[in-house]
Amino acid sequence: MLYQRSSALFKDAENVIPGGVNSPVRAFKAVGGTPIFAKSAKGAYVYDEDDNRYIDYINSWGPMLLGHAYEPVVKAVIEKAKNGTSFGMPTEIETKIAELAVSMVSNIDKIRFVNSGTEACMSAVRLARGYTGKDKIIKFAGCYHGHSDAFLIQAGSGAVTFGSPNSPGVTSGTAKDTLLAIYNNIDNVKTLIEANKNEIACIIIEPVAGNMGCIPPKAVFLQQLRDLCDEHEILLVFDEVMTGFRLAKGGAQELYAIDADIVCFGKVIGGGLPVGAFAARNEIMNHLAPLGNVYQAGTLSGNPLAMAAGLAMLTAINNDKDLFKRLDEKTEYLHKGCAAALNKHNITHTINRKGSMISIHFSEEQVVDFESAAKGNNDTFKAFFHGMLNEGIYIAPSAFETWFITDALTYEDLDETISAVEKVAQTL
Ligand SMILES: *Cc1c(COP(=O)(O)O)cnc(C)c1O
Questions:
Q1: Rounded to whole angstroms, how far apart are CA atoms 183 and 390?
Q2: Residue 180: partners with Cβ closer than 8 Å, 6 or more residues away
């Protein structure tokens, strides 16, 4: 494939945008080369500026559950725009989407809309701290909750020590309030709680991790977390920015029959427009300003275009009885096909999958946490990524990302993908 125009556009972008991108992973640093520039997209396909067509497995990093330029979403946004794009006043549509979201997700009474997943998680933690009167939080290594300071933390020197900043600009003061736990390891969480008795406001987790590849929770892990939180008066925060409205109507809470205390949303809930949200029962949500004193605000929060897109998206999901079954079947088909193609050429790999999330790890070991995810062979991944791109299959440009299956994918698309995997496997 030729990437002439994308290469030229990237050069221009680099002059005026740091690294040429507005979000780092887009820059292809983890796989080498320069990014392809998107021109348009429809259904399961994205087209670049050189008019190459790709079957898209990133789907804007998750929002496009029903495919690109999904007609009801596009129509809703266009219609809304004609009446003004922002008011800074309440609008009826905010209540409509809130009612629908609350009806789809268990254990939430009220929801507050923001503009990104980052904002949702950042606000959820503030609310948890304000509600409990405690300062520290536990997060899991390899889980991503957006780029606010409290989450940009890496493991400190010892297992029970405080975290340390993993980006310049994050203060050590902030880092000392974030404790880092190992995903799928309940004993590790217990140790952290014991060492920080009565100091932990919340445990925040991706109930199915999607930012170190796809890593489902072990069978009883989420229930064990729930029990620990109840025992120690810690709030359990599910970051469902990726899994919300994707794994089930009610997200991972529904799939695993576990109630979290605060739930964060993003991605699918905005139908491709900038939307995030966080939600909880009244007793918690009523602590939020202007009802309570935990402050949180946003000039463009609940923006009518974003709400129109989100409402059209959630309505479509809510009205489709078979959606999650179809998505699961497509993902399973892809899983089996990819595994067979890689096995045929003796490529060492592990595939993780849950619902419409799937990831291929070039590793012998089971991938259950950040450490095991990091053991994958990155050189193989790089070659695989570029091989697939050249075959017209767009997967995430990093081994630590999940592929997102959309309902727009046909079995012909999946077969084309599996053929590409087989072809690329021969070169690995
Ligand atoms: C994408 C993501 C975020 C951050 O959302 P942004 O909209 O990029 O700020 C937070 N949590 C999880 C689980 C995510 O996947």
A1: 35
A2: 138, 139, 140, 141, 153, 154, 155, 156, 163
Q: What is the set of active-site residues?
A: 144, 239, 267
Whole-angstrom Cα distance, residue 302 to residue 88?
9
pLDDT of residue 161: 54
Placement of tokens 């929770």 in the chain: 217
Pocket test residue of 243, 267, 278, 401 for ligand 1, highest count of atoms within 8 A of CB: 267
- Structural tokens at position 275: 């939307």
Are the C-beta atoms of 421 and 388 separated by less than 8 Å? yes
Do the bridges between strand 262-265 and strand 235-239 make them parallel or antiparallel, or are there none, so unpaired? parallel
pTM over 0.90: yes
| Residues 216 and 369: beta-carbon distance below 8 Å | no
Q: What is the dihedral of CA 351, 362, 214, 411, to 10 degrees?
A: -50
pLDDT digits (tens, 9 = 90+) for 256-313: 999 999 999 999 999 999 999 999 999 999 999 999 999 999 999 999 999 999 999 9
Q: Quote the CA–CA distance of 101 and 110 in Å, as a whole number.
A: 9
Cβ-based neighbour number of residue 132 at 10 Å = 18
How many other β-carbons are positioned within 10 Å of the β-carbon of residue 363? 20
Q: Is 206 in the pocket of ligand 1 (CB under 6 A)?
A: yes
Distance of alpha carbon 88 from its chain centroid, rounded? Answer: 28
- Best mutation site among 25, 113, 211 for ligand 1, i.e. most ligand atoms within 8 A of its Cβ? 211
- Residues lower than pLDDT 50 in the chain: 159
Q: Could you identify the atom of ligand 1 that is nearest to the CA of residue 239?
A: 13
Residue 159 is predicted with a pLDDT of 46
